[in-house]
Amino acid sequence: MTFGDQLTNARKEKELTQEELAEKLNLSRQTILRWEKNQVFPDISNLKAVAEVLDVSFDYLLGEDKIEKDPIAEMNLLEVLVGKEVRLVIFEEFVDNYVDIYDKVCLVLDIEEDMVQVQFTVKKELKMKVIPLSVIQSFTLIDEGSE
């Protein structure tokens, strides 16, 4: 399921309209509509707020409700990666879900709790994705000027 599908299901499970969810998040109904239609994706702070309001996990919203791997433990090390380019290695069982970032250089935009927000390019189009740390096996820091 897509993020939009999971969001819609969780919102309906809580018996909230798009308008009611938007009010709780201090956002517009159009923002919720665009998220549910997968036109845009919330940033990490909004994703966290959505998860709290709907009482679901990040993993659930991202369709990864059966992740069993431990997340990378050293958050202070990871925070150093914000603003850096990295190449991520995804655990084999999750590669199909993250094929769009497989073997691509990603710019780390934010790391919060157990999620990392990255930016990458697909066919000259800039994309963003929020990834659970628990699907990342390792990363390689890209030296400036090497790519």
Helices and strands in order, then pairings?
Elements: H1 3-13, H2 18-25, H3 29-36, H4 44-54, H5 58-61, H6 75-79, E1 85-90, E2 105-112, E3 115-122, E4 125-132, E5 136-141
Antiparallel strand pairs: 1-2, 1-5, 2-3, 3-4
Helix pairs in contact: 2-3
Describe the fold and architecture.
The chain is α+β, with helices and mostly antiparallel strands. It folds into 2 domains: 3-61, 434 Repressor (Amino-terminal Domain) (Orthogonal Bundle); 75-141, Roll (SH3 type barrels), CATH 2.30.30. Helices cover 32% and strands 24% of the residues. The chain contains 6 helices and 5 strands, in the order H-H-H-H-H-H-E-E-E-E-E. It has helices at 3-13, 18-25, 29-36, 44-54, 58-61, 75-79; strands at 85-90, 105-112, 115-122, 125-132, 136-141. Strands 4-3-2-1-5 form a 5-stranded antiparallel β-sheet. A hairpin with a 2-residue loop joins strand 2 and strand 3 (115-122). Helix 2 packs across helix 3 (29-36). The longest helix has 11 residues, at 3-13. The protein is elongated and about 45 Å long. 18% of the residues are buried.
